[in-house]
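COMPLEX REQUEST
Ligand: 2-acetamido-2-deoxy-beta-D-glucopyranose
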Amino acid sequence: MVYFIFKSRSEFRNSRKNILIFFFRLLSIIAFILTWSYFIFLCLLHFKTNNNSSQNLSKQQQEQPCRIQSPESIKIDYNNIYWQRFQSSNGTFFFYNAFYDDRILNGELSTIRILSMIDRISPIKIYCRIWFSNSSNSIITLADYHYIWSRQWGNYEDKILQPFLINCPFPRQKHLQPYFVSLFEKNCTAITNNLQIINNRPLDKNKQSFAVCVKGLEFLHDDLSIRLIEWIELLNILGVKKIFFYEFDIHPNMSKVLQYYQNETKLVHVQKLSLPGSQPNSPLERKKYLQQKIIHRRQNEIIPYNDCYYKNMYL
Ligand SMILES: *[C@@H]1O[C@H](CO)[C@@H](O)[C@H](O)[C@H]1NC(C)=O
Ligand SMILES: *[C@@H]1O[C@H](CO)[C@@H](O)[C@H](O)[C@H]1NC(C)=O
Ligand SMILES: *[C@@H]1O[C@H](CO)[C@@H](O)[C@H](O)[C@H]1NC(C)=O
Ligand SMILES: *[C@@H]1O[C@H](CO)[C@@H](O)[C@H](O)[C@H]1NC(C)=O
Ligand SMILES: *[C@@H]1O[C@H](CO)[C@@H](O)[C@H](O)[C@H]1NC(C)=O
Ligand SMILES: *[C@@H]1O[C@H](CO)[C@@H](O)[C@H](O)[C@H]1NC(C)=O
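STATUS: Structure written out below.
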């Protein structure tokens, strides 16, 4: 009996011990699982918040439309007084003037043509943003290039400024006149060029018979006043309605002659000109440069000839 009791007691004790051990093990396993899951939860939370903030950023970047504004004049990258510079990711552009071309042969599209010099033979893809006069609207079109030089004439290489006509074709607008044009490479980057679009039309709708365009005058020391007068008068007799002169530097006497014709007869129009980029523009250096770098000079001469033509194509 005693034995039985004892035995049962010891058995009883043993089983209690086993249960305790079992509960202890269970508890430690639960504690282990809880700790780990808490740890994993913390990790996930951390990862999630991090992810959220970066999503937040990119979402903001995606959703917030970049405010595209016509650049203020103080933010424009001017170059040598008469030019505007555009620094692309591959090549530097110099814009001289922009013109509105809606001649019939142009077809369904009107074109903005931008007379420019670019230090690349094959410039990169750029876009035009055309702003309209009495509308805050603007349109974006892909620009195409018209190389206005021939490779056989020399200087056909990158880094030398090449004359180009940049064309921005856009659907003909009935009531809106294009007013300004800016060129850019990537959306949402600050625009630092803005050219007023030239659109000279005859006020009385009568086209004039003919005009003469004269490339940049460079007569720093020679006084050719008398011969200049003879030439202007002869052209006048031959029926020329207007002579468009571009001027680098001329003798003061010649300058007076041109001013006289411009003020008194309207037969002459004079426009100052400069060389774009890092080409020299102080009178003596420029004279030397134009005399010695003949191909460069000819490439630069393309600009006044075409400027004169596109400015007056409707007149
Ligand atoms: C996420 O957006 C909220 C408001 O929408 C802003 O307070 C928070 O600064 C943004 N976080 C980051 C990292 O930009
Ligand atoms: C820049 O353009 C020239 C051709 O115009 C090309 O040969 C050159 O690889 C371009 N450079 C870069 C960095 O894209
Ligand atoms: C826009 O300008 C044209 C002519 O310049 C004018 O007829 C038209 O009424 C103007 N439209 C607005 C909305 O101002
Ligand atoms: C610039 O963004 C506008 C709208 O955000 C889009 O319509 C246009 O195609 C984009 N232009 C370029 C050149 O990426
Ligand atoms: C031209 O200018 C010079 C001074 O620079 C003057 O001495 C000369 O008489 C002028 N020539 C004519 C034809 O007026
Ligand atoms: C022509 O006009 C300009 C300004 O209108 C004046 O500065 C200049 O002295 C005039 N020149 C002549 C020769 O009349």
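REMARKS: The pocket of 2-acetamido-2-deoxy-beta-D-glucopyranose (ligand 2) is lined by residues 90, 120, 122, 158 (CB under 6 Å). Residues 11-45 form one domain.
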